Amino acid sequence: MARRKLMARLRRSNLYTFSHINRAHHQSAQQDIIDFGYPRTIYCNQIFQPFQKRSLIYCGNDISTTKYSVATFLPKALHEQFNRVANIYFLIAAVLSTTPYGPFSPFSAIAPLAFVVGLSMVKELMEDWRRFLQDHKVNMRDADVHIGGGFFGIKPWKEVMVGDVIKVHKDQFFPADLLLLSSVYDDGMCYVETMNLDGETNLKAKRALEATMGLVEDGYFKDFNDAIIRCEDSNSSLYTFVGNIEYDHKVYNLDPNQILLRDSKLRNTDYVYGVVIYTGHETKVMQNSTKSPSKRSRIEKQMDKIIYILFTLLILVSAVSSIEFAYMTKSDMPDWWYLKAPDRNHLYDPDQPVTSGVYHLITALILYGYLIPISLYVSIELVKVLQASFINKDVNMYDYQTLTPAQARTSNLNEELGQVDTILSDKTGTLTCNQMEFLKCSIAGIAYGKRSSEVELAAAKKMAKDLDGNDPDFMSFQVSKSNEVELECVITSNGNENSDDATAIRGFSFEDDRLMNGNWYKEKYADFHLLFFRILAVCHTAIPELNDETGALTYEAESPDEGSFLVAAREFGFEYSRRTHASIFVREMEPSTGETIEREFKLLNLLDFTSKRKRMSVIVRDEEGKIFLLCKGADTIIFDRLSEEGRMFQESTTKHLHDYGDAGLRTLVFAYRKLEEADFNAWNDEFMNAKNNMSNDRDETLERLSDEMEKNLILVGATAVEDKLQKGVPQCIDKLAQAGLKIWVLTGDKMETAINIGFSCSLLRQGMQQICITTNDQDTMQGIKSDIMMQITSGTKMINVEKDPHAAFALIIDGKTLTYALEDEVKHQFLHLAVHCASVICCRVSPKQKALVTRLVKEGTGKTTLAIGDGANDVGMIQEADIGVGISGVEGMQAVMSSDFAIAQFRFLERLLVVHGHWCYKRIAQMICYFFYKNVAFGLTIFYYEACTGFSGSSIYDDWYMILYNVAVTSLPVISLGVFEQDVTSEICLQFPALYQQGPQNLFFGWYRIIGWICNGVYTSLAIFFLNIIAFTYDPFRSDGQTTDMSIVGAGMFTTIVCAVNVQIALALSHFTWIQHILILGSVIVWFVFLVIYGGMPPEYSHSAFHVFVETLAPSPIFWIISVLVVVACNFPYFIHIAFQRSFHPMDHHVIQEMVYYNKHVEDHQMWKRERRKGRRKAKFGFTARVDEKIRQLKHKLHGRPSTLTLDSPQHV
């Protein structure tokens, strides 16, 4: 009984004409391999055969995406840590501290280094452990494997081997790359969703060879052991396959139509059988993946260069110190009898001054090590973790629908978020929901549909805001009511801004009573309306399924467009109910009576859609015996095939198509042709003969015959479908464009789909010149390359000769062409063209091509790239980009697990970059600059003291002072700067997106600013040392005439350093909270409290600091006076600098801060709006650019009118 039901299911072997046929260039490659033999031989189902016939020569099916293994973690992690220049220096210093020549104990040098390196390694281990758990979960999935005797058993994926026969059930993922043997359908068909491979959610039909279609039950595989597969080696091409299978003493050629790829999912098919041909890392999805990289931010790399500079300075001062020490050892030390030279360690030996100088060099390198701050790395790690926690807890990036917060999966790249130049984005699931909504249509030259698209609504709001802002260039014109200029697109959706809530039927957002409830019958040209609805219901390849719970029909369609068409047909009264191998049944509502009648349309043939044909047709016979060809396709294709009498509605339909395109809608044109019986029979005989012919010219013959049939068409109408974007995508893209970011879209979708989405999200717009680069399949490889170079050169010339500053160009390229464009001799010219285009869309790209494009942009431009996606097919580009962002979408968690940051929706990228990226960049940049400043200021005072004391290798400061400097009295304020500093609030960041460009331009960590801070540190060290020495050395320090010793000078000098650097950070801060106040003031207080406590200890612990503050410093007026004077002297130049800059050369955020301080954003709205318009970059994509173009057109019209006009306020309709 079950078998009979299966036999009664859909048979479609005669419907797929062009499905996955090898192209001519691939046939030549196949012939070459056949001539020389296939490199891979697979013995199928050889369970009990010797090893030479098993899959042991091939890799296992377990996968690993981790960066480390148990054996490699320690060496690789240590190598990564000691890529940091400062860590290398401190490692050398730690080793040298174990010698007798170190000025400090070995523990004081080794412990900080071990802590810093160990902390970073633990963090890396935790991040890699999460990857391991994800891999383990995948490797332990269940697979139904033939275990012998016609029985199947459960095995984990990792135990699947090449040659095994696998049974895959509905909605399961394929555990490896399989050759399809048979399916539950008697014609060997099955349906596969490849979302994880190419991002497409539409189903793809696969069909088994006729020779193996009969293997439809488990028991049939008991004797299936004589098949041998010979095929190509594993490669990354998702869309090609070359091989054959020897079965039952016959050889059958294989093509991609029989291949089921790992990580794709079986849909709409109860089960299939397949034999494993590629496993593990040899599968095509893994061939498209890349290894988990080690990423470092640009600031961190530049920080290494600063370390080199400071290390050079350290070597310089150490060399000067050692040379001077060697000279003094030889010339002066014999007179210094109290030193008892030479000592037993030869640290100072007048007879061996060179040796003494070398030993002193070791001492100096460690002593002056405070020039290079080891605590910088610890502080940055802590600050980045706290910054990441703020990102994780940002409620404005929390998705309440899925209860998903933002997640910083690594904290190493926080500041990199503020320096992004180019965003490379996936489309499906990232920009779009892949949910099509039937919105408008044009039938017989009449436009229907009143609801507005998301693009129209966003543009209308933007235009209304711009007009309300009183643009002086625009509002200076006065437009009279009699000569009113109509503002386009200033509309709403029936007053309901939330169109999602207003849509009651998924896939159908149409509103127009003229077509609903059978009212179309009253319209002019009712016969064309009837044909239009029948084309909606009949011209497709979808399969209806009855929902047992609701009793309603659902449709499994090859594309979301088809699904929305069928839903629309049902709502119009033409419900597609069922189909057989030969007929399609539609329930039509009779307009006059309201009754439903099921009509049968016999399916005579189907000419399916391909990216080359850009159209699809069905040939059907209605109940009256009439034969019709029903066709739908791209407007340019259909219009070229219209007959003279079929162009009656072309002009009006073309206008409607232009309006739909401007609204960001996807359009298709419907046409038909009535066929005579004799003409069809003659054509059909020739067509079926060509279809069954397996010669090399089969494709060309089929295409020629299809062209002959799809001519002399009569235009019926057009559809406009909205590909529902993720919430807030147009606004996010617009804001990113205003922030000066470039956006590339890399998608596996067809070119037409990608272009439509480009219009939907305003990456493309009307008036933007499209540069489409494609290839001709018939050309030789050299001819293809030459043709591509010619197209690239032509596009570049087109851009160069364009004089209009508002002109915008979009580059569109498909995956096959991209293969050649990424080769070494072409890729630089391709990149040069791409970076000069406003938008770039790459379609039909494989996961590996996504990664290669990302690498080209990253390395070719030398600027920061960010890749964002939500599927396994996006993992390569996410890992390749400087920053990878994963979206927690419907395509699984592979992208999130490989990403650096994870968000729930694309719209959160705006806040992640424009707010958190801007803040983190400035915080880290200022923090690092300040760190070098304070350490240079402190470290050079030690050198000055050395110079004044004969380079003796001693320090003016107590050892505990030096430890305390970077641990307690200066560390917390700088951490607060890195965590809490804000130049402007988050709201202002979003209102002035151009502020973001401070990061890509590197205004706060350029060499000018870095050297300025280092010079500030040098000046501070000179002021502190010499002012203290002058004040304390010669004059009596206390009222009883006592002078100071070095312990008093050291304590006083350290006090002025602590106060000066803390006042400096207070001047550098723009945003104060109670935390900053406590930490800055508290650091100074902590120093004085420590001095009291430490000085109160017994002399054997406090040494020279015994009662130094209570008895000597505190009672002395000179100490307090000199402390204030030194602090003022140290910070006065910086104060003058910032006052001069704010007054005469203010930066953008300075102006905004002044406006906010004086409440201009509250009291003077016009001024605030004017500054906001100035605070956005001039973009050539985004709906702001679209609105700006419309306003320019209006201005042009107004300039051309001599009469005085007045402009009415835009009305929302």
UniProtKB/TrEMBL annotation:
Keyword NAD: no
Subcellular location: Membrane
Top-level division of the source organism's lineage: Eukaryota
Parts of the chain that traverse the membrane: 306-328, 358-380, 927-945, 960-980, 1010-1034, 1046-1069, 1078-1097, 1117-1140
Assigned keywords, A-Z: ATP-binding, Magnesium, Membrane, Metal-binding, Nucleotide-binding, Translocase, Transmembrane, Transmembrane helix
Names of required cofactors: Mg(2+)
Entries under Pfam families matching the protein: Cation_ATPase, PhoLip_ATPase_C, PhoLip_ATPase_N
Main location (coarse class): membrane
Keyword Metal-binding among record annotations: yes
Residues reported in the UniProt entry to bind ATP: D426, K427, T428, E562, F609, K632, R666, T747, G748, D749, R844, K850, N873, D874
Single GO BP term: phospholipid translocation
Membrane topology: Multi-pass membrane protein
Catalytic activity of the protein: ATP + H2O + phospholipidSide 1 = ADP + phosphate + phospholipidSide 2
Binding site for Mg(2+): D426, T428, D870, D874
SUPFAM superfamilies assigned: Calcium ATPase, transduction domain A (SSF81653), Calcium ATPase, transmembrane domain M (SSF81665), HAD-like (SSF56784), Metal cation-transporting ATPase, ATP-binding domain N (SSF81660)
Active-site residues, Swiss-Prot/TrEMBL: D426
GO MF annotation list: ATP binding; ATP hydrolysis activity; ATPase-coupled intramembrane lipid transporter activity; magnesium ion binding
GO cellular component terms attached to this protein's record: plasma membrane
E.C. number(s) listed in UniProt: 7.6.2.1
NCBIfam families on file: ATPase-Plipid, ATPase_P-type
UniProt record similarity statement: Belongs to the cation transport ATPase (P-type) (TC 3.A.3) family. Type IV subfamily.
UniProt name for this protein: Phospholipid-transporting ATPase
Organism of origin: Daucus carota subsp. sativus
